[in-house]
Amino acid sequence: MMVTLVRVWDEPAEYRETGAERILIGGRVLRLERSPGGGTPSGPPLDEHLVAGPGETSWALLSCADVIVRDGGEPALHRAAFPGCLVLAVNTRNGCLLVADGWSARLLPVLGERCAEEDAVAYASSVHAWMVAGRPLGVLTRLTSVRGNAVAQVRVRDPAMQAAPGAPTVRPAFRRAVP
User: Where does the pLDDT of residue 50 fall: very low under 50, low under 70, confident under 90, or very high at 90 and above?
Assistant: First the structure.
């Protein structure tokens, strides 16, 4: 995955479409569709944003991405390089670091495995949708990814931890993609 458009729908808790990528977050079910996608659920999405994956090297594409996922590196340096990014995910050996609007947390896989790239993308996209919908990030304690029959869960640790000094803060109201 290099750069892709991700659409997110807020689904009822009983939503169980086979094959859909879902994230359980803060007592809600968010359905994610990456472009190019299949059928579109009825109704407008909760959020729509561009995601730049770890392999993306184009400065122009990284500069316009709302969500950036990286393998390793210092989150504050990534944020400083791309101040328009609302959510940054950095995969490390010790979990995935998420940074968003002055909030940051470490996602620790419940079963001890490494946070896979597609899970990091899904978690970061869900946090983006959660944030632009005006929901508080501080309430997040667990994120669960459901992809077909595969389930991955992470604990959100240190949700009150602030981003590194000098890391720019971007207000979600100015970057919201979908009204």
Answer: very high
